[in-house]
Design brief:
Elements (H helix, E strand, L loop, with lengths): L4 E4 L9 H4 L2 H16 L3 H12 L2 E2 L4 E2 L4 E2 L7 E3 L4 E2 L4 E2 L2 E3 L3 E4 L2 E3 L4 E2 L4 E2 L4 E2 L4 E2 L4 E2 L7 E4 L4 E5 L10
Helix pairs in contact: 2-3
């Protein structure tokens, strides 16, 4: 079960309450920083931008591939451990706006995690250390450490038999 805080709304759908949720200028700043980071080919600069301007927790030698899209409104709720790879065009969300409510939740990605291209990670999930998420997956629930998951809906493909083993490539 995802761990999110839920905020009901009364009148129009929850997206109409966006600037009651997060300040306009914060969104503008985050947009500019994220767009710069999405296109930069320099991994240390990308991590520095995320840490310095978005308050994301990013571990040493973690690599965000080209076009990764962290949450624009609540990037500070994203934590990625050391030596992880976040694949091309992956989206990491810490919020979701629905018709009658919006939800906000932390996203925690462990150490040595591989997330394939075009994955979508929803708010309130934890991806354990050593996990592998297949390309194109929608991560809507927690992923156990060392497991290999994929698809939409997300399902377990394989568990590591020994935590020192790695998955074949």
């Amino acid at each position: 079960m995802r761990q999110t805080d839920r905020f009901p709304v009364e009148s129009a759908n929850s997206l109409w309450h966006i600037y009651k949720t997060v300040p306009f200028w914060k969104v503008v700043k985050n947009f500019i920083v994220i767009q710069a980071a999405r296109y930069t080919p320099f991994l240390p600069i990308k991590n520095w931008l995320y840490r310095t301007f978005l308050n994301m927790k990013v571990g040493e030698t973690t690599a965000f591939a080209l076009m990764v899209m962290p949450d624009i409104m609540f990037p500070e709720k994203i934590s990625v451990g050391r030596n992880s790879v976040i694949g091309y065009n992956t989206t990491i969300l810490a919020h979701e706006y629905l018709i009658k409510e919006y939800r906000i939740g932390n996203v925690e990605i462990g150490d040595d995690v591989l997330i394939g291209a075009n994955a979508t990670i929803l708010p309130g999930v934890t991806i354990g250390s050593g996990a592998v998420v297949a390309a194109g997956s929608v991560v809507h629930k927690d992923v156990a450490p060392g497991s290999f998951v994929g698809g939409n809906p997300l399902r377990l493909i394989r568990e590591k038999e020994n935590k020192d083993d790695s998955f074949p490539t």
